Amino acid sequence: MTRAESPSPSFCCAVVGGQRLSFSTSPELFQWCCCSRHRPLFRIMVCFRLSLMPGSGLVSLCLVLGAVSAYALELNLMNSEKATCLYAKWQMNFTIRYETTNNKYKTVTISGLGNATYNGSTCGDDQNGPKIEVQFGSGFSWTVNFTKEVSTYSIENISFSYDTHDNTTFPDAKEKGVFTVHYPVAFRIPLDDIFRCNAILTLQENMVVQHYWDVHVQAYVQNGTVSTKEFLCDKDKTTTMVPIVPTSLPSPTTTPTPKEKPEIGSYSVNNSNGTCLLATMGLQLNMTHDKVASVVNINPNTTDFTGSCHSQTALLRLNSSNIKYLDFVFAVKNENRFYLKEVNVSMYLDNGSVFSTANNNLSYWDAPLGSSYMCNKEQTVSVSGAFQINTFGLRVQPFSVIEGKYSTAEECSADSDLNFLIPVTVGVALGFLIIVVFISYMIGRRKSRTGYQSV
After folding, report:
1. Residue range of the domain that includes 183
2. Residue 196: C-alpha distances to residues 67, 114, 349 (Å)
3. Which of 40, 119, 307, 367 has the fewest C-beta atoms lying within 10 Å of its C-beta?
4. Per the database record, which ranges form the Lysosome-associated membrane glycoprotein 2-like transmembrane domain (predicted)?
């Protein structure tokens, strides 16, 4: 459509909460209204007006908000031929640690993105690559840039900015201003593929931790059709590890000094509806780094905790002066049970080096939704060959917390009252066997005597 062919005046249509609204526009501005083909859940359709600039096509932007239980954010950029040129849907949140005026530190989690706008998002041109720009909350902005090569495109880098002038979000912040963190990503994806990562991706830069999950993005959509061929992130790939048989005996590792049991701490995560995750546990970390084994007890009195709650996943993050992060990621399975799916850790060791490992294919602490999981006796969560977590006095409930209290607990097998029956049963069986043998012996002896009579 050319400038001369545009209607005057034109109208924008939007559907908000089931109501159809129309807005008139001036002859100098054009409006495309996009229609969603996704399943009919509650959503908000927003159509942005973009001016027609000389030498560039008319780019329309269709933004679908809502259906938050499926995807918090969804973006569909279209070119002048009304063909999709960039498509993305994803979820994300941010944890920011900042210093207060009394020289202490506070942590805030930013997860409510329902008021997001996408000003500045573009499909790119011959000089500049595509990018997604998101604005939300009070002074938050997020940008991701893409680049293209012959047969691949890359998620090049991610930028996140926040403004500590917002006293509601950052009360008593010592430094006031706009702060920006940049994180190089450099995921390289085949040009005809859509990038997918359902697992939680964690990026950390300075005092900002970024979490992304349920990510689907294709920056260079071919022929206006989003690809069904997926390029998976490493965490979504199923790989088989080939064992390596050493040709010589390994050097002995240093045996760590045994530690006393850790202190039991209480942790919680809140969202707009109140407390959404509860955890009570004593944690002992066992790790081997450069053939040196060490044991660290987590002190709950000097440990900070944050996290987030969603319909299918929940996160508890611990950090302290020597622990950059220790993540416990819970997930829902079969729509009626929860379990510990993932553990990520990065911490500073005594020698100044950093120890990091992760495992997103765990299966611990399984219990029905609406209940909690409890295990008073010591348990071991084996994250990797070099890292295990011993838990003491454990109780967790990552979903369906009511009034900030634990629901009825499902006990681990080690705590079960039936455990005492095992030794009792074995003892009874052995006693019965001894009696049977003794009776058989006596009967056999009596029969042998009846064959001989005195003369």
Report:
1. 73-236
2. 19, 22, 34
3. 40
4. 422-453
Q: What are the tens digits of pLDDT across the range 266-288?
A: 999 998 889 999 999 999 999 98
Q: What is the CATH number of the domain that holds 143?
A: 2.40.160.110
Whole-angstrom distance, CA of residue 118 vs CA of residue 38: 20
Q: What is the pLDDT of residue 205?
A: 76
- For residues 191 and 282, membership in a common domain is answered with no
333 and 374 inside one domain: yes
Query: Does one domain contain both 187 and 286?
Result: no
Q: Judge whether 188 and 234 are in contact, CB under 8 Å.
A: no
pLDDT, tens digit, for every residue of 8-64? 333 333 333 333 333 333 333 333 333 333 333 333 333 343 433 334 343 444 433
Please, which residues bridge with residue 289 across strands?
Answer: 292
The tally of domains found in the chain comes to: 2
Domain co-membership, 331 together with 182: no
- Mean local confidence (pLDDT), 310-332: 93
Residue 247: inside a domain: no
- Residue 33 near residue 47, CB atoms below 8 Å: yes
Q: Are residues 232 and 268 in the same domain?
A: no
pTM, to two decimals: 0.44
Residue bearing tokens 């697992």: 199
Beta bridge partners of 110: 94
Q: Give the SS3 label for residue 64.
A: strand
pLDDT tops 90 at residue 204: no
Q: Which two tokens stand for residue 411?
A: 């006990």
Chain centroid to CA 274: how far? 20
Same domain? 269 vs 207: no
In-domain check, residue 4: no
- In the chain, the largest separation of any two C-alpha atoms, in whole Å, equals 139
